[in-house]
Amino acid sequence: MFWSMAPLVLICILLAGVLGMCSFAPNGPGQGPVMPYDTAAALNADAQTLKIPIRLPRLPDGWNANSGSRASIDGGRTENGRPARAVISRTGFLAPTGMFISLIQSDADEPSLVRWIDADVVPTGTQEVDGVRWIVYEGGDESRPVWTTRLTGPTGPAQIAVTGPAGTDEYRTLAAATQSQPPLPTV
After folding, report:
1. Residue 145 and residue 136: Cα distance in Å, rounded?
2. Which InterPro entries match (predicted)?
3. In the prediction, which pLDDT does 26 show?
4. CA–CA dist 182, 170 (Å, integer)
5. Consecutive H or E run containing 4
6. What is the pLDDT of residues 31-51, one digit of tens each?
């Protein structure tokens, strides 16, 4: 049985190698390329579609956007004294350190947005970033910190949050790069 299977296994390995379907990396997998993501186009589209104040962060060199999404929270905000659906714009970035961090912008109220991000975090303090107070939420071993603040612009308020496995320096950089920008037009 072995001698009948050995040639088939060898042929499969050779074909996979020749066709480029596998590779050998003695030191383990390496850092792959960052897939391009057009942050400006995505956030402009979010501002137009969601009709909330969305900011395009001006980040230093070495930061790369790599993902984005939209979501909603039923009952995430109050409108005329009644629960209303809140909308969310989420953009993911890779910091120069290679760590991931998300920027979340919404018309949700703070408790609803934080609960949507991670229901296991609780407020533990604040961080001042260029004169803006960010509330810091932290949880257990499985939770990532969440920093959040409410920014008001000409089109109204927005709840902004940053979260991810990145460190405090990356949180501060993304917070400053976001809060310093005006909201994108919604018309």
Report:
1. 7
2. DUF4245
3. 72
4. 21
5. helix 2-18
6. 667 678 999 999 999 999 999
Query: Cα separation of 85 and 72, whole Å?
Result: 7
Q: Is the pLDDT of residue 180 over 90?
A: yes
Q: Tally DSSP H helices, then E strands, for the chain.
A: 4, 7
- DSSP for 123-166? EEEEEEETTEEEEEEE-STTPPPEEEEEEEETTEEEEEEEESS-
Structural domain harbouring 71: 39-179
Which among 107, 109, 108, 104 is positioned nearest to 93, based on CA atoms? 104
Bridge partners (DSSP) listed for residue 93: 65, 101
Query: Based on the structure, what is the number of domains in the chain?
Result: 1
CATH number of the CATH domain containing 168: 3.30.200.100
Q: How far apart are CA 43 and CA 28, in angstroms?
A: 36
CA 79/CA 45 separation, integer angstroms = 24
Residues 6+ apart with CB under 8 A from 90: 68, 69, 70, 71, 102, 103, 104, 105
Report which secondary-structure segment, H or E, holds 83. Answer: strand 82-94
Give this prediction's pTM.
Answer: 0.82
Both tokens of residue 126? 């604040």
8 A C-beta contact, residue 76 and residue 106: yes
The reply to whether 58 falls in a domain is: yes
- Nearest partner of 102 among 10, 46, 39, 19, judged by Cα: 39
